[in-house]
User: Fold this.
Amino acid sequence: MEWGTLAVAAIGALFGIGATVITDAMRSRRERDQRWSEAKQLVYVRFLTALAQAHSRMVIVVSRGDAGETRRHAVHDAFHNDPQHAGAKSVLRELALVAPDHVHQVALPLYEQLRIIRNALGSENIAVETPEYWNVVRPFFQKMEALQRVMRDDLQPPSGRRQRLASSASPTPPPLT
Assistant:
């Protein structure tokens, strides 16, 4: 056997092993990124659900027609007591752990707006049909929509995110006439 043949076989084996190691590392990274994305998606859904359910529970309490301190306590209980033990505040803390800072910074004002709704509904003079209620609930839904867009963008694969940012950042200028 010649040394040249042996050297080519050794180089081929090294090349094959190297390619396998690189492929496994890339697959492992892709799987880790996928698991992280799934964990973030779960927390995002839990947070949005907790906010929507807290809002719904408070509206239901107000529709019962309680008055005074009974109403205020009932609204506060509806805000804090989630039957699934996923209160908005605790899921907000989970969100702070897994979400990038820009997502968390959009979530904070939304949670605060829900607290404003809680305080408004706890007062005697606001009902769901009044303009005062709609003045505090409209920003809540607008902020929730904005947060959903930010979360959706965060969950996109990096390549899709870059394409969408490029298309939204540089709109096509009107033709010159």
About this structure: Residues 40-155 form one domain. Confidence is low (pLDDT under 50) at residues 170-177. Residues 24 and 30 are 10 Å apart (CA to CA).
